[in-house]
Every structure is written in C-alpha cells, then in structure tokens.
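Is this the right way to post structure tokens for a design question? Let me know if I should format differently. Anyway, here goes:
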C-alpha cells in the first residue's frame, strides 16, 4: 500500500490506517481484534489509531499487538478522564491518562499522542498544552497532535505546537478543506482524515433513526451526488475514500470496523488513490453550490 510522509513528523504512514473506536464501543471479541490486526498487516496498513475513551479498545489492541509492536505505528488520544479521578482537560488527567494508555497498550511509548477534540477555550490554557509537550520531551510519545474539527481545530493549529491534525473530511463534511487544512499545511503539519466513508449513510433509503447518522444523511440528501445511487456500494465507497485522499495535504485516511470481512474489503478492494482532478472538482463544485453555511466539521 502506498505510503506518504506525515508532515514534519517524517513518519511514513500507509494511506489507510485502522481506527479502533468500533472494536471498543461494539464490544469486539479479543480473538476478532487479533485477526483484524492481522488483516491490517497483510494489507500493508502500518498505523493504528485509538483513544483513551474508546471503551476497552486500547487494551484489546495492546493484547493483539503485544508480539508485533514494531510492525505498526501506534497513535492514541488523551484528554477525557474516562474513568480516572479528576476533571477532563487538566494536566493531571492528561498525565494519568497517558500512563494508563501505555499500560493498556503494553508499550513504553506511542508514536503520536493527540489532544482529543477539546475546545478553543481549553487550548488557551497553556498548562494543558504543556503537559503534551512534556510527554514528548520525556519520550512517552514521539509526536503530539490535535484531533478535532472546525474553529476549535483552527485554534489548535494556530498555537504552533502540534505536529499533526486529525479532522473529518468526506463527501458530507468538507469545511476542513478550506478552513483548517491550508493553515495546517502552512505549518507543515501532518493531516489525518477521519470518517472518510461518511458512515456510508447513503446505504439508507430513509433517514436513519440513529442520531449519529442523521447529520450526514441530511447533508447528502440535500447535495444529491448522482454517483452515490448510480453505482454499486463498493464503487461509491471507493469514490468516497479516493475523494478524501485527494484533498490537498491529506496524508492518510482512517477506516475502522469490527467486521473482518468489511475491513478486508475496505483495505484490499478499495483503491487508496487520488481521484482525477476533474472528478474531485466536480464533487467540490456540488458541495460549494448546495452546502449550507451551518455545515461545520463534525467531531
């Protein structure tokens, strides 16, 4: 699988990475996680992205990677107490949370530690950002990043502290392409795209009852990309991933699943390459014509 440099970190990341929220929130069995990690390795995927608040995903991933830590780059996120004593977004919780993550992941360091979707107000507190800087200085993480969207992400970028930005970029979520990515690129930050498949909400012929899917469904219903209904699901997913990877500055896109079959299809049957310029601009043009000013990046 193609690899790209993750901005100024110099890390060579596969253009697709494995996101582990689903294995935690949907209670995947450990044996399943072990096989998912194997699928990643076989497909040439070389980085894993997890978080302190994805239930027990760090623990499951740590067990699955216990004999192959050097085969992957390991990214996690911090900020939420998620069961620890203390208040979210405080230096004490950040420090304790990282120590817990390292224990769960069975490693002495992570390759990237990301501040997890906190507000611009939190970022104004220099002690919070300093806690991440100290984690990098101590060798517990090689690099530090911010994971989030919209004006909060822009505030993180302007601090000049972070090495990377992880943000939502997909057919239904394109604010970052003009709001934050240009500013991140000016600072040579590595850019990771989350939710590249937009939850594949176009599979639903009616508005989903689950609120998690409704915002993207409403947006795509208004835009009406013709190709989403005119081609097969595999082809539409391929276009979705390729669109995300075509956004200027994007290094990699993160895809997660607890389904072995679905993950294997996404990693091996979806060509992780850029769209031709005219196709990319066609999608961008429909977005610019039909999107609403209120459509901010979704956390």
């Amino acid at each position: 699988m193609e690899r790209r440099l993750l901005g100024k970190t110099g890390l060579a990341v596969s253009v697709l990475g494995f996101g582990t929220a689903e294995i935690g929130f949907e209670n995947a069995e450990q044996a399943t996680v072990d096989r998912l990690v194997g699928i990643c390795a076989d497909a040439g995927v070389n980085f894993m992205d997890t978080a302190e608040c994805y239930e027990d995903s760090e623990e499951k991933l740590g067990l699955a990677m216990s004999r192959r830590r050097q085969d992957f780059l390991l990214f996690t996120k911090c900020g939420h107490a998620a069961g620890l004593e203390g208040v979210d977004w405080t230096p004490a919780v950040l420090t304790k949370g990282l120590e817990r993550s390292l224990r769960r992941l069975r490693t002495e360091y992570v390759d990237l530690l990301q501040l997890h979707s906190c507000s611009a107000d939190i970022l104004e507190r220099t002690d919070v950002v300093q806690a991440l800087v100290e984690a990098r200085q101590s060798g517990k993480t090689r690099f530090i990043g911010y994971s989030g969207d919209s004006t909060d992400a822009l505030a993180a970028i302007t601090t000049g502290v972070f090495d990377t930005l992880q943000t939502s970029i997909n057919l239904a979520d394109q604010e970052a392409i003009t709001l934050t990515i240009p500013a991140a690129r000016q600072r040579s930050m590595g850019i990771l795209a989350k939710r590249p498949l937009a939850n594949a909400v176009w599979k639903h012929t009616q508005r989903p009852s689950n609120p998690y899917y409704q915002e993207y469904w409403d947006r795509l219903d208004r835009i009406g990309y013709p190709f989403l209904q005119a081609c097969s699901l595999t082809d539409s997913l391929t276009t979705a991933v390729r669109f995300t990877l075509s956004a200027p500055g994007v290094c990699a896109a993160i895809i997660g699943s607890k389904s072995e079959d679905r993950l294997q299809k996404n990693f091996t049957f979806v060509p992780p390459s850029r769209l031709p310029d005219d196709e990319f601009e066609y999608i961008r043009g429909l977005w610019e014509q039909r999107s609403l000013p209120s459509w901010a990046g979704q956390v």
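Format looks fine. Someone answered above. Worth noting: The chain has 14 helices and ten strands. The domain at 3-199+237-275 is CATH 3.20.20.100 (TIM Barrel).
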